[in-house]
Design brief:
The chain is α/β, with parallel strands linked by helices. The protein contains eleven helices and eight strands. It is about 50% helix and about 15% strand. It is globular and about 45 Å long. The chain starts with a helix and ends with a helix.
């Protein structure tokens, strides 16, 4: 059994449990992004197994009629084996999503994988327009240039502040600097896009800024938050007519998931504790 501190952030160990969680969230007006837990596979067989699991999950979502999509991690579907294997599996998942009228997000991992991840996204989005979306991290100093490159790509862009502890040579490490970069990146997206903008943030200031920019530029957007974090705010935003998506991991690798999150950045432990305590 998943312990309480984990069950708050993980939608069960099985697909039926994840779909039950999705159904409950949908009743509150919140859509769900399902992520099968697993990452950093160096065995092609493991990457293929999770790819197959996502293909089946997309079929299950389509059959259920639930308001849900999926999100994959590059290192989960082959990046740690080769960029080519990653793109092969990524493309197969998006192709299935396109067949069943579903949607696929790709998470962003550490900065060493950014180029290969964006190359694959750009190529796949060209073949399957608006069936795929890519996460972008504002803490990286390169992100303004990446957004300029991707602004006309026919796929969604999820803007997050970034959770990986990258060196100061390539990333902003001060919170104020990250916040400033996030605001600038949001401004750019709303100025240049009228659709496909995803605000991945729990920060009320950034969510309010997105609302103001959407009204100013008459652009559509969605807000994405993690399962177990500010869920009252998720429901409140949905009740106000905002498109809200909850990122909900599931699967039996929940212990390694929490270990990696804490190891990546000590602030993640504090973040999880505050969420559990409702602060």
């Amino acid at each position: 059994m998943i312990p309480p501190i984990a069950s708050r952030f993980v939608a069960g160990e099985s697909v039926p449990a994840a779909l039950d969680h999705t159904r409950a969230a949908n009743e509150d007006g919140v859509a769900v992004i399902l992520n099968l837990l697993g990452e950093h596979y160096d065995d092609p067989a493991d990457a293929r197994a999770d790819t197959d699991a996502y293909l089946q999950l997309l079929d299950d979502i389509a059959d259920s009629g639930l308001d849900a999509c999926v999100s994959v991690k590059p290192s989960q579907i082959g990046m740690d084996v080769s960029a080519d294997l990653f793109e092969e599996h990524y493309r197969a998942i998006v192709a299935r999503a396109d067949e069943v009228d579903a949607f696929v997000w790709c998470d962003m991992e550490d900065a060493d994988t950014t180029d290969d991840t964006l190359d694959a996204f750009e190529s796949i989005a060209a073949d399957y327009p608006w069936s795929v979306g890519q996460c972008i991290q504002s803490n990286l100093k390169r992100t303004a240039d990446d957004l300029e490159r991707l602004v006309d790509v026919p796929g969604k862009l999820r803007l997050v502040k970034g959770a990986y502890d990258e060196p100061s040579s390539i990333a902003y490490t001060d919170k104020a600097d990250v916040d400033e970069a996030y605001r600038d990146d949001l401004q750019f997206l709303f100025e240049r896009r009228d659709r496909g903008i995803a605000v991945g943030s729990h920060d009320p200031e950034m969510i309010s800024l997105a609302d103001r920019l959407a009204r100013e530029y008459e652009a559509d957007y969605e807000v994405q938050m993690l399962m177990g974090v500010r869920e009252d705010a998720q429901r409140d935003l949905a009740a106000q007519g905002v498109d809200v998506y909850q990122y909900a991991p599931y699967g039996d690798k929940w212990l390694s998931y929490f270990y990696r999150r804490v190891r990546e950045r000590k602030e993640n432990l504090t973040f999880a504790a505050r969420a559990v305590l409702g602060r």
